[in-house]
Structures are given as structure tokens and as C-alpha cells.
Design brief:
mainly beta, eight-stranded antiparallel β-sheet, single chain, about 180 residues, elongated, about 0% helix
Amino acid sequence: GGSFDTAEGTLGGSVLSNGIDFAGSYTYGTRGDYDTGSGEQYQNSGIDSENGLSANLGYSFSEANRLGLVFTRFAVDEAGNPGFLNQNDLDDYSDKENYSADLSFEGQCPVTGSDILARYFFGQDENSWMDPIASDPSGWNDGQLSENKTDQQGAQFQLSKDLGPAIFTAGFDWLDYEV
């Protein structure tokens, strides 16, 4: 087997007080180039840095009703793209970043006792690839930056009622992607 030189750290915590709840974490890491089992280093296979953030904030205004907000973000800076071990590309890399936010309500109708779930979310994914021509063992590198970005948003609504021997659930989903 082989191995990467890897370093990663995470910091996180949670709190609950007077109906307000919060949980969050941040992670940062880096990874060096891959060393094969025979001791050969697979150049440009590491990641300069990657980091992630996650936060969940909520407010329960009664025993059965909660408003929530979840936010996540993840980014990778200069992830090497080495190609094949026998055709090692020394300078191709990619950058990636995404985030999402999710606002939700989970509760119960005081009149009917039905469970309600409503949520709206949005986010974005961004990716870029660079293939400089200085190291081009495959012959495909063009030195141009390639990018793509995807925006997404959506909503959900669900209503459930316990009818004794069965639970009836109805709802809808809406999703919109823009590339």
C-alpha cells in the first residue's frame, strides 16, 4: 500500500438554551503527494488545502414547533490532477467550492394535530480546472482555465396525519437548477 502526508483539524461545539439550539464545526486539512508502496512519489496528487464549515441554528417556540437554519460550505484549493502514474502530469489542478443554506419549519397544527414540514433551500457549486501546458504527458493540455457554476434552489412541503392504523402523508417538492 501507499500513503499521503495528511494533516487535519476540526473545531466544533453545540449549545442549547431557552429554546435556542446551535451546533457547528469547522474543519481544515491538507494532503501531500501520494507515496506508493515501493517508495515512489506520485507527483501532483495532493491538495493544498480543504476546509468545511457547518452550522445548524434553531428556535423551538413550543414543544412541537421548531424553526431551523442550516448552512454548510466546503472548499478545496488546488487539488492536484496527476493523470496516470506512468504519465504523471505535474501541474494540472482543480479548485472547488460549494455552499448551501436550508431554512425549515417542523411543527404540528394546533387544530388538526397534523405534522407539518416546510423548507426552502438554496446553494451554489463552483468548480474550475487548470491544465497548464508546461507538463503535458497526455498531449491534451491547452493552458485554458475551465469553469462551471451551478445555482440551485428548492422548496418542500409535507403534511402528515396519524389516522390510527395508518399515517397519511401528502406533499410537494420544487427544485430549480441553473447551470
